[in-house]
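Hi L.,

You mentioned the student needs an example of a multi-chain input paired with its predicted structure. This one should do, with 1400 residues in total across all chains.
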Amino acid sequence: MITLVPDEEQREIAKSVSDFLEKSVTIATVREQSLTPDGVSEDLWASYADLGWLALGVPEEVGGVGLGVAEEMLLFVELGRRLAPGPLRTTILAARIAAAAGREDLVAELVSGERRAGIAVGDLVVDARPGDLLVVLTETTGSLVEVAATEPVDGVDPTTRVARATRGATAVDVDGPFLTIARIHAAAELLGVIEAVRDMSAFYAQTRQQFGVPIGTFQAVKHRCADMAVAAYAVRSQVAFAAVKFDAGEPDASFQAASAYALAARHAQKSTADNIQNHGGIGFTWEQDSHLFLKRAHLLSRLLGVLRDTYEVVLEPPRNDFI
Amino acid sequence: MITLVPDEEQREIAKSVSDFLEKSVTIATVREQSLTPDGVSEDLWASYADLGWLALGVPEEVGGVGLGVAEEMLLFVELGRRLAPGPLRTTILAARIAAAAGREDLVAELVSGERRAGIAVGDLVVDARPGDLLVVLTETTGSLVEVAATEPVDGVDPTTRVARATRGATAVDVDGPFLTIARIHAAAELLGVIEAVRDMSAFYAQTRQQFGVPIGTFQAVKHRCADMAVAAYAVRSQVAFAAVKFDAGEPDASFQAASAYALAARHAQKSTADNIQNHGGIGFTWEQDSHLFLKRAHLLSRLLGVLRDTYEVVLEPPRNDFI
Amino acid sequence: MKLIPDADSARFREEARTWLAENVPREPRPSGGEALKEFDQEWQRRQFAGGWAGIDWDVEYGGRGLSLLEQVVWYEELVRAGAPRESVFAVAFGHAGPTLIMRGSEQQKEFYLPQILRGETPWSQGFSEPGSGSDLASLSTRAVVDGDELVVTGSKIWTSYGEYSDYGEVLVRTNPEAQKHKGITWLIMPMHLPGIDIRPIRSIDGFPHNCEVFYDEVRVPLANVVDRVDNGWSVAMSTLSAERGPGFLDHRLSYIRAVDDLIEVARDNGRLRDPAIADRLAQARAATAALRSMAYYQVTSTTKGAQPGPETTAIRTFFVQVQQEVARLALDIVDTAVLEWSHTTREWLADFSATIAGGTIDIQRNVIGERVMGLPR
Amino acid sequence: MKLIPDADSARFREEARTWLAENVPREPRPSGGEALKEFDQEWQRRQFAGGWAGIDWDVEYGGRGLSLLEQVVWYEELVRAGAPRESVFAVAFGHAGPTLIMRGSEQQKEFYLPQILRGETPWSQGFSEPGSGSDLASLSTRAVVDGDELVVTGSKIWTSYGEYSDYGEVLVRTNPEAQKHKGITWLIMPMHLPGIDIRPIRSIDGFPHNCEVFYDEVRVPLANVVDRVDNGWSVAMSTLSAERGPGFLDHRLSYIRAVDDLIEVARDNGRLRDPAIADRLAQARAATAALRSMAYYQVTSTTKGAQPGPETTAIRTFFVQVQQEVARLALDIVDTAVLEWSHTTREWLADFSATIAGGTIDIQRNVIGERVMGLPR
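Structure written out for the whole complex:
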């Protein structure tokens, strides 16, 4: 039995996330919090923990909610759509790594919101402060490293913190498909971004008038909007497929996840750029939101290392054997 | 003094070529001759020789017309535009190579139409029959090799002959910038192709009606047409610049020529594909001419080796020093 | 959003795989003529005999009565087994069959559907006309009621396998006075009737992929009208939505295998070490993976029997771009491919039709912009 | 089509090169404030004093009276010398000056042109409005004649360097009753008049590249009308054709240097060995080479003083695509560039405006389709 459509329980998870974000994380919130030192308020971070979002995919026996990557996917789509602030993506991953290593103490710290985790990208770190953990991934392992000190650098995405870090001790180092999970999460977040700009573009194209008609009348604008809808449909299908394959423990899950991430990264970059073009002059301003989605799309496309690492996983199987 | 616009004498050369082709080389002629064994009739080939086209760039002292690459460019633009049959591009090049080596005998054979030349591409030869000469190029040399025997293979461009050849003796091997000249010729021929499909698309977009209006009303069609016009303008500028630089013996001629060829190949491939799309169903038929231009564009983009050889020349100078 | 491995599904796939391993034709498909038709008919007959025809069609018309999911699995296994991809039954399975199921009368279903499943009667399509391509509704082939017959005069173009077909799904104008979408009728055309002249059209790859069909006062029984006279536009919309549904899924899935093959070629000839090639291959493979997941998404979000929605146009738009990218990639992987005629160059040329045939990509993107995104016409 | 090296041309280039080597400002351009304006003014004054201002402008207005060809050479040498690329005089040289030369009265030319050349008065542009972007002719900033003055009320947007400018080229609606192209007037706006409020707009790279300018009953002498009242649309077309002419050539040519630099970076960091990068760099360099040759083609096919034709739109359309490709390429060459703020990321973000500012690429392609290719509107 396979279905790529959320069941009722899953729809409720997505709705509860969406409801909370609609109420508490408007784009104004995102902009406000982007000006704070951590990029997210203590209150909001605590809410994430209270809502159980940080524990969603952590097994119940170590204090988690015990749901799957499929449910996490639904969470990340909403987070991406709203540009939700804070390092959820890396803290959630860290909790999964700690859980796999049986480090219930760390799991507890992470899912309670007490401790956060960032991630290492090249010689930079994203969303890591002194005292936080740093997620370090290979195709087959996940590690958590103490962050001893950081020296902030200016980042491109104003809602994310970038730094150079001095690493401390390695707290956890465990085998597991964490990079595969991370790719599904990131692809889901990118899907949220694509869906958000698709809807922004459609709204603007319906309402902005030039030459006496809505600009969506013009094929150039219309076709760019259509491309976003197509991208969203393709990416949603592939991310969902990867998620259910992962949860079922199927052997092609890593291939499907890498494909989802490659596809999502490509189309999110294109859709967010096209969205600026659709908005014309206003889309090029800081006050309008298009650039925030563009920058988020590029951040997420680089967060798990260079895309070619993902391409290697995509190219690895000699055959797609339809399992 | 520099001008990239043809002077009166040059305009007359272009006009005389265009007039002859308009009269004697219609697209029906091209199609007819594509069915003959050599791809070009003896009569038409003799006309090319009589008109002096094969001798245009050969110095007067060895029996040529003594004009420059600029004038040859104008010839090739018209040849490209009309898909003129026969191996002019390689025979003209061979005559230049023979002239550089002082082989007046070979020059005479070539410019009189008595002997033809093809070219080696990878392990294939294009437009070479037993007894013909084979042009073999490096960045700094040109050779002419006897063709001992050929084994025809099916080609993609129906107006061109492809074979595997057994090579005989090397008749000429001489230093000279023949590959640079060949790139300007090929870029000019590709420019003719771009201009031809630009005009075809514009005509069809003006006349074909759907939804009660000419299809050129629709932005998708209109924009593809506009892209062709832009490409034609850019490529014409760059080919002309390369041609006059070459004729003046300027040191950046090889860079400009390689840039012209790289640019022309890219845009000819795109323009000829877009032209098929603009024509819809009819553009996908053998009877309509779009495919002939597509195939010619791809042939010319591969005729001088893989494009990366050209790219290397483009990338070579550390700086464009505005000479 | 869940995958629970179950014994029934696994058994279905296993049986399909085993049967196909033993039954897929090993001889090459003839390139044309009666031999081609017979080959396709024989292969379809064999599938029917094995119980593999019309997986999701109702049992009463000879189908298996299973779900769309099993239909998808069957297509996957067809591709996996290297079964013949093209068939003179493509229109019958992808267009005409689903249209009859959605819109045909009980008599029509009982008569035509089993013939298709048993491999008897190939169908062809007669929608486009020389003057009506993107603007399909402007079609002008006339049909005049005369007693209990329609008399059809005009011409249709881009009819694939027209010369092999026994029936055609043909749109005709029955009311020239009505608004252009409102005077059209969807007709079952017996293709051997007097007055029909079928002429092949040579495509840019040199092969006659389709035909022009001329109708000169061809008399067709009124009983051959599907739904009712003058309501054919709505029936045609059902046909087109079916076309973009899982009907032609084996074609889409075959591009998964095409990319598998390209990766192997590139690994063998060293081009896979060229990142300019490898990056594109990876993106192409990810996109073909999505072709499969889109099929699962579609069939698990669609109720069986419902008319597929506009998302099917999204699938198609995505697919045709993948097709052309894969074809271009193949060309770039094989060094002098563009000079020498080969399977690669032929596919490259043939795939130029992907963004044209069955509605240009320009029109598809309009449809998505308007029907999915709510943009003004 | 000929290049004959001649002593005069060689000497001009040599003199320009020598002068620039000694005179190009070595100190960095201030990032804003009065210091920026003074820097640009000082650099322009120095060029004027050296005899290098207005190479192709008439001698009677303080120019050199040379041909467009020398103007191109001067731009080349500016880029070669690494001279400051941006200037608060960009609109004055690229827009306002050429417009006054083509359409201004003798008095206007005599008054305004020498001030520009001498580096005194930067200009800004006031064409677009919040409600009038692509559809420029729908602008609604009102100007009412009152005695020998026009009283202007409304707002303009995307005004680059508005806060530094002494004059603005501003389009106003003088006749709201007329057809929309026919009631517009091209006005010289003294930017320090009472009632003008200039507010910077922050762009996606975080910097205020342009302003919104509000006009509240600003009184401007009627003598500041260029050409005549209600004929401003035609004057604006002159302005825009000038914009796309050689006026901003140093900007286009600077992308030649940008690609030179990228090749050097890629050679140093090893990415040039990556064919996926090298192929794109080669194509980008070929395209930037064409930016230069297009300038030569344009100036040698245009009579001096004639209004540039639609080919200028082709140049611009080509250029903006090159701009964005170069910016993306830079991003891909520097590994983690997309995470860390840098010159590369700033340029990448800033260049998103290339296909928007001064008329979106959609509109430019319409213009080419319609005016060059003769397609219907």
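You could point out the following to them. The two ends of chain D are 35 Å apart (CA to CA). DSSP finds eleven helices and nine strands in chain D.

Best wishes,
N.
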